[in-house]
């Protein structure tokens, strides 16, 4: 992302049509080559997985699949898609992501708005409380015991509530709100809007960029998160797709002991093409959303970054 | 972006973070609630549902139905469903309803630790391998099983019948009790051994090697024929090969390193990594590397856990002809070779681990995964019934056959000689039995599930579902190899356990690093004495004394 921002900035600095010096041309060439290489480096694993998802498992095991599928077939897609648990877990992920993002956005925007008002009494304490959690937390077992005691185990709330406010997102948003012209709010107040009105009708509509960015941050985080589900859920019909996927591909990663390795040799039977198909199906939604949110993303993150 | 949740600084090290926090948190959380050791059970009050005259080889049926919570590891390729006939049939026969807590296989051990540490574990914790239990013992969270085996007649019967008493003694912790009950195997056959391309070994005129010297000679011949190859490999960072090879030199290494102690011949324990046998073993493998016979990449590369991965690719590409693996690995090699060499043009077999200077000795493998129980169950009114049920489930031969094959005359038949045949409308694809039949007894019905099925097995049961080549392997091991005698037990008490692990970890690190360096030629074997000196500087003698004191104490207390 950072690289993208830099290149766009450079492009904007230089007006079009100006003759380029030799140094600039060399720089451009080197820059382009490096970025293309970087791009290939990043795309290669993805393309391989994509190719594997259409290949036969034998060809994958024999190490024949690189860029193009070998033994092209769609059977694996059909097989994975006919698995009930796959769809149930997929549905769970969508549910957790939507509910989680909604809750997270509500809490983060309101909290950030309040914190952005310098005249708020106890503002520093409120910020302190949030920032404190950035550096310290209770630890794994205490957290687990807490969630258990709140009887949130084996419910969606164990997944969506603990991560609802990300302090990083909160601070970015606070900085954004602080940069909105104060005069707008004053004008709105004169016209009779209360704080909720100002927040809902003035501030939020003006913050589309940062909101889109935060929605993206939160939804990607919820979509990718397997750890909370791993900790707090004991029923496979409640698992998100990431846990399903992790079980499928990371299953055999412990070989510290013979017992584990022996158990792992059973999982090795989850053939590479099934793993590939599940990975592809899992990333597709995020991949398709990304390009549309991208333009907000860049401007959203940059906003508020100049004025500290 | 995962840092949005701010739990750990980096996603990559999460597993390690879990491990550390579990160890730390668990120890701290549980220090407070250790058991007072009250192991008396009130047989009258706690026998609800129990059978009065329960004996070995008898069907267990609870006199009053009850529910039992079980930790269930979910294998990704075998998603559990409550529709499985397994649950229904067991309930029908025993009046016990199993209620499962699912944990994904990928992180099963971490989640298990978490549940036990948080006091949230289900009653029955299956899939416990020997040694897994020791970290939970001091917390009092798990039940000392040895106090209750009197209620488990099947267990007692087969321990005696299969002569496993000494090995059971080795399970004892410092308090003289054991906390897990292992699965009992009638025959001792190493699971991991060498998988070879038999056709190639025969093609070069080498045959199946019986000793490591023969193995070396065969590899030399193969190397002549296939100069580009490095014919021997290990896809488990060397840990598997060193494990099964070490017994041939009377040492312990790799996965089997354990606390690093071996019997010195006089009934005392010595540190294996400084023995002459260990040195010879290292020199042998150094020789293989020097002559280009051992694939060094596979010894150092991180593995994907299946032992396949890059090794499978090399096998498929005729670059490797012998590698560590289980019968499952052999099937993987076959599938890969079918793609490259073609079906019928290769023969992959598992062979008994080659012998060496210490004789044709293999590791004793009479224990497989078993179970431990949540300590809270000791207060349950169903306690005796639960013990009887588990005794039946884990050790009754009829139950074992049920769990493997399903319902007699419904899914399988058994003739007068005891030969088991799966009915044609059922398949067991994991073992290639009746492939293509509409109903898979494992996937669709829950029989042969990995949680319970592999645990305890008689020889006949083991051979009933495995391929003929595996049956040959079992026969070859039993007829030509002797299981190694177990070490004299030396269980440590809590304080000793702590100081021993402080000493043992750096020692083992030094051993592991230098073993690999010697083998790969990064360190000259002439520096062996320096290496021994380094270990001594790290407190080797102190450690050995600690273990030997524990051994003597145990010997006195139990003689």
From TrEMBL, chain B:
Which Pfam families does this chain map to? Answer: SBP_bac_8
Superkingdom, taxonomy of origin: Bacteria
Task: Note the Gene3D superfamilies from the entry.
Answer: Periplasmic binding protein-like II (3.40.190.10)
Q: Which InterPro entries match?
A: Bact_solute-bd_prot1, SBP, TAT_signal
Region feature (Disordered): 480-503
What is the name attached to this protein's record?
A: Extracellular solute-binding protein
- Species annotation: Glycomyces niveus
Its lineage opens with: Bacteria, Bacillati, Actinomycetota, Actinomycetes, Glycomycetales
């Amino acid at each position: 992302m950072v690289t993208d921002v830099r290149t766009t900035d450079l492009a904007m600095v230089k007006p079009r049509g100006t003759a380029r010096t030799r140094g600039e041309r060399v720089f451009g060439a080197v820059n382009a080559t490096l970025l293309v290489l970087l791009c290939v480096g990043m795309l290669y694993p993805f393309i391989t997985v994509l190719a594997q998802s259409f290949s036969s498992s034998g060809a994958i095991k024999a190490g024949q699949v690189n860029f193009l599928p070998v033994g092209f077939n769609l059977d694996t897609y059909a097989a994975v898609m006919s698995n009930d648990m796959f769809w149930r877990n997929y549905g769970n992920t969508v549910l957790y992501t939507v509910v989680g993002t909604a809750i997270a956005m509500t809490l983060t925007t309101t909290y950030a708005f309040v914190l952005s008002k310098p005249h708020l009494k106890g503002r520093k304490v409120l910020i302190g409380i949030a920032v404190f959690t950035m550096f310290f937390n209770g630890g794994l077992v205490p957290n687990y015991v807490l969630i258990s005691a709140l009887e949130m185990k084996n419910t969606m709330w164990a997944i969506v509530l603990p991560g609802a406010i990300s302090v990083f997102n909160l601070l970015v948003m606070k900085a954004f709100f602080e940069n909105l012209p104060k005069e707008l709010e004053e004008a709105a107040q004169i016209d009779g809007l209360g704080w909720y009105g100002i927040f809902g009708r003035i501030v939020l509509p003006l913050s589309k960029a940062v909101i889109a960015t935060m929605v993206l941050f939160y939804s990607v985080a919820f979509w990718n998160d397997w750890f909370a589900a791993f900790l707090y859920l004991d029923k496979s019909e409640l698992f998100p797709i990431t846990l399903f996927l992790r079980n499928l591909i990371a299953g055999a990663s412990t070989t510290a002991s013979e017992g584990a390795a022996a158990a792992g040799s059973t999982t090795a039977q989850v053939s590479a093409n099934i793993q590939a198909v599940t990975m592809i199906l899992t990333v597709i939604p995020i991949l398709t959303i990304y390009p549309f949110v991208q333009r907000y993303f860049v401007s959203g993150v940059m906003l508020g970054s100049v004025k500290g | 972006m995962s840092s949005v949740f701010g739990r750990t600084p980096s996603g990559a090290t999460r597993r390690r973070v879990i491990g550390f926090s579990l160890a730390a948190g668990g120890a701290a959380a549980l220090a407070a609630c250790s058991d007072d050791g009250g192991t008396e059970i009130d047989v009258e009050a706690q026998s609800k549902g129990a059978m009065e005259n329960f004996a070995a080889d008898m069907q267990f049926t609870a006199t009053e139905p009850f529910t039992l919570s079980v930790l269930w590891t979910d294998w990704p390729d075998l998603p559990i469903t409550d529709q499985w006939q397994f649950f229904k049939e067991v309930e029908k026969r025993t009046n016990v309803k199993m209620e499962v807590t699912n944990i994904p296989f990928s992180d099963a051990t971490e989640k298990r630790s978490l549940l036990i540490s948080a006091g949230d574990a289900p009653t029955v914790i299956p899939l416990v391998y020997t040694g897994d239990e020791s970290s939970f013992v001091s917390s009092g969270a798990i039940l000392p099983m040895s106090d209750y085996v009197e209620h488990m007649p099947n267990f007692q019967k087969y321990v005696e019948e299969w002569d496993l008493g000494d090995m059971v003694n080795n399970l004892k912790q410092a308090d003289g009790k054991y906390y897990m009950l292992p699965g009992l195997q009638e025959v001792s056959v190493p699971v991991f051994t060498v998988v070879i391309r038999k056709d190639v070994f025969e093609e070069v005129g080498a045959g199946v090697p019986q000793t490591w010297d023969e193995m070396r000679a065969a590899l030399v011949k193969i190397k002549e024929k296939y100069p580009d190859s490095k014919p021997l490999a290990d896809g488990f960072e060397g840990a598997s090969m060193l494990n099964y090879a070490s017994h041939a030199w009377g040492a312990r290494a790799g996965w089997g390193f354990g606390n690093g102690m071996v019997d010195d011949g006089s009934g005392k324990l010595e540190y294996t990594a400084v023995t002459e046998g260990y040195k010879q073993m290292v020199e042998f493998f150094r020789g293989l590397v020097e002559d280009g016979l051992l694939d060094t990449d596979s010894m150092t590369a991180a593995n994907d856990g299946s032992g396949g991965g890059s090794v499978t690719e090399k096998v498929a590409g005729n670059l490797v002809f012998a590698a560590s693996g289980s019968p499952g690995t052999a099937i993987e090699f076959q599938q890969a070779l079918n793609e490259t060499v073609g079906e019928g043009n290769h023969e992959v077999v598992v062979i008994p681990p080659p012998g060496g200077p210490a004789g044709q000795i293999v590791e004793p493998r009479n224990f497989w995964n078993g179970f431990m129980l949540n300590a809270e169950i000791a207060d349950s009114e169903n306690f005796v019934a639960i013990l009887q049920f588990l005794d039946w489930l884990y050790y009754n031969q009829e139950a074992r056959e049920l769990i493997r094959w399903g319902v007699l005359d419904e899914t399988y038949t058994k003739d007068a000689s005891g030969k088991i045949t799966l009915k044609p409308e059922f398949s067991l694809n994991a073992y290639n039995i009746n492939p293509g039949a509409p109903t898979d007894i494992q996937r669709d019905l829950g029989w042969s599930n990995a949680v319970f099925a592999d645990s305890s097995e008689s020889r006949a049961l083991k051979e009933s579902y495995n391929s003929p080549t595996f049956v040959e392997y079992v026969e070859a091991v039993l007829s030509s190899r002797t299981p190694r005698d177990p070490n004299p037990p030396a269980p440590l008490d809590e304080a000793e356990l702590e100081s021993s692990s402080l000493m043992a970890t750096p020692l083992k690190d030094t051993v592991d690093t230098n073993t690999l360096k010697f083998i790969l030629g990064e360190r000259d074997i002439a520096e062996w004495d320096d290496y021994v000196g380094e270990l001594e500087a790290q407190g080797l003698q102190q450690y050995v004394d600690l273990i030997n004191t524990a051994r003597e104490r145990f010997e006195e207390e139990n003689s």
